[in-house]
Specification:
The protein is mainly beta and about 325 residues long. The chain has a domain of about 170 residues: Glucose Permease (Domain IIA), CATH 2.70.70.10. It starts with about 80 loop residues before the first strand and ends in a 25-residue tail after the last strand.
Length: about 325
């Protein structure tokens, strides 16, 4: 994949998950229009894995709120382990991929049928494909109603329930997670690196580091369209319960970006840094910010033998229940 060209700049202890309080999703951007999505699974490079469709259909708002992304911090030491999609109450929630329902009801975090569980009514699917020889799971939280049962096989796009506000929430939305390896709170990955972008649009991932090369939390990165002046925002991940992709090693992601030319901007210890970047469609575009050294562009180096590029997953036929 061609890399974007860099031009000269213009001038640990994990928190207690039970303390999570989910904020009210912010107002969605003015334009609700999105192109259709690429077909799943979509893996334009050996290291990409857009395996999942959106859990909300295209006739509704189906993209995450921008001010509370994966890794975002709402209160001190409370880090977001998924993305929130601000669809209206009663909007159908659909399976992002085929697989078998592993959980359907209250208690997905605490266990048992606990109506005080922070996820509220939730569904978990174990998918019939994985990645790097590890199982993949998706979680759908805060539902108003559940329309599937544990053990049921579901196809991609099949209705799982309805958007609601059960559990620890202050507003109506769908909380969506991708989990890799095990179905536990601490194995999430950024869903914006796993759900397909709209056709002709791309994703931006970055490693935001200090001048010594160590990840730094809470740094605001701004992507600006120089022609329209429109801005996209994201902050580098908080510390604790979130995980980076094994290849990108990112701690910041912005999804759903129309392909084109942008300015990448931030401020660090009182100094402004700017770089030009081309967002290519259908792929993950990548940058590194290294403190006082500023931005650099281009994909990460190919890892050593401990990382094996993956082909598109083979979708297994539905299992039969005796």
């Amino acid at each position: 994949m061609p890399a974007a060209t860099l031009h000269p700049p213009a001038a640990t202890a994990a928190p207690d998950p039970l303390s999570i309080t989910f904020p009210t999703p912010a107002q969605v951007q003015v334009s609700d229009w999105r192109p259709p999505l690429y077909a799943t699974p979509w893996a334009p490079t050996a290291f990409d894995h857009f395996y999942f469709a959106r859990p909300i259909a295209a006739d509704e708002i189906n993209w995450p709120v921008a001010d509370y992304r994966y890794g975002g911090e709402f209160f001190e030491d409370i880090v977001h382990t998924g993305v929130d999609i601000p669809a209206p109450k009663g909007t159908p929630v659909r399976a992002a991929g085929s697989g078998r329902v592993l959980w359907a009801g209250y208690g997905v975090y605490r266990g048992g049928n606990d109506p005080t569980d922070p996820y509220g009514l939730a569904v978990v699917i174990r998918h019939d494909f994985g990645y790097q020889d590890q199982a993949l799971f998706t979680l759908y939280g805060h539902l108003d109603q559940i329309d599937v049962v544990e053990g049921q096989y579901v196809e991609v796009g099949q209705q799982l329930g309805l958007v609601g506000e059960t559990g620890a929430v202050t507003g109506v939305h769908l909380h969506f997670e991708v989990r890799l390896g095990e179905n536990v709170f601490f194995t999430t990955r950024n869903p914006e690196l796993w759900t397909v972008p709209p056709v002709g649009w791309g994703v931006l991932a970055g490693s935001v580091l200090d001048s010594t090369g160590q990840p730094v939390s809470g740094i605001l990165i701004i992507l600006t369209d120089p022609e329209t002046g429109q801005n996209w925002f994201a902050r580098s991940y908080g510390e604790g319960t979130v995980n980076s992709d094994e290849y990108y090693r990112e701690n910041l992601v912005m999804g759903d970006l129309p392909a084109g030319h942008y300015l990448l901007r931030t401020a660090y210890v009182g100094t402004s840094h700017v770089a030009e970047i081309e967002i290519l469609p259908g792929v993950v575009n990548y940058f590194v910010f290294r403190g006082l050294n500023g931005f650099s562009l281009g994909l990460p180096a190919i890892p050593e033998s401990d990382f094996t590029p993956q082909p598109l997953p083979t979708l297994a036929p539905p299992e039969t229940t005796p």
